[in-house]
Design brief:
This protein is of the alpha/beta class. The chain contains 12 helices and 8 strands. It has an 8-stranded mixed β-sheet, with helices on both faces.
């Protein structure tokens, strides 16, 4: 069985951990490096995994998953670089951090794969994109895709597209949570109890996303099927268009992409 070390036990680190356990990895084959003692203890109690310092965690690991803040990557990797096993595969799940930046901190020739995940990985419904570094083979990228399958869907993309992926699926859940928040508040303003409004909005988003995924039709066609000429939906969509919804999303994703580039710099 593959021995996996996770550097970082925050929200995304735990999401990946949960996915690994759900897909059949034994807790005994996983170890988490988390500097906050209280958080480390919490992960052990909740998931039954061992915790250790960074250097201890990577010692003997076949795969090292780096799930820390972008600003902490160089420091964290610097602490463990000397303890990496020969041939260990390093996987960075840190927004905006290039494979070249990771490779620069590690022993020459270390295979690195960059992955952009998102938070629905916590429930096995994540969307992630993987890219190979200079020394990672196609087989090693496939290994990462298989390893993370328990967190949701994983696709392979050229690394030059990772900043765009970050803007779309990496940050994407926040956009939908904001939509859910806004729709719920608007529904309360219309007189609905908040609990009822939240249930209506949540199930509408879930059902719509499921229909979009399983139906296979273009979203334009699905939107048109809901929009009767002169009806309630048409009235609502006209207001959203007047407020520049499409342009706002275009600007928002561009801003997220640009920030990802800045973080990588």
């Amino acid at each position: 069985m593959t021995r996996v070390a996770l550097l970082g036990g925050g929200v995304m680190g735990e999401a990946v951990l949960s996915g690994l356990l759900a897909s059949g990895h034994a807790a005994d084959d996983l170890v988490v490096a988390e500097k906050r003692a209280e958080r480390a203890a919490e992960l052990t109690v909740r998931h039954g995994v061992a915790t250790a310092s960074g250097p201890e965690a990577v010692r003997g690991a076949d795969v090292v998953l780096v799930v820390v803040k972008p600003a902490d990557v160089a420091g964290v990797l610097g602490e463990v670089a000397g303890q990496l096993a020969e041939g260990a595969l390093v996987v960075s799940l840190c927004a905006g951090v290039s494979t070249a930046a990771v490779e620069d901190v590690l022993p020459a020739g270390t295979p690195v794969v960059r992955v952009m995940p998102n938070t629905p990985a916590r429930i096995g419904q994540g969307m992630a994109a993987a890219s190979a570094g200079r020394h990672a083979s196609a087989e090693q990228v496939a290994r990462v895709v298989e390893l993370l399958a328990g967190t949701g869907r994983v696709v392979e993309v050229p690394e030059k597209l990772q900043d765009a992926v970050t803007a779309v699926s990496g940050s994407g859940p926040a956009y939908l949570f904001l939509v859910a928040e806004a729709m719920t508040d608007a529904a309360v303003t219309l007189g609905l109890p908040r609990d009822t409004a939240r249930e209506l909005v949540t199930q509408t988003l879930l059902g719509s996303a499921t229909l979009l995924a399983e139906n296979g039709e273009h979203p334009t066609l699905l939107r048109e099927q809901v929009t009767s000429p002169g009806g309630t939906t048409a009235a609502a969509l006209a207001v959203l268009e007047q407020h520049g919804l499409r342009a706002a999303f275009g600007d928002a994703l561009t801003a997220a992409r640009d920030r990802s580039v800045e973080l990588g710099g």
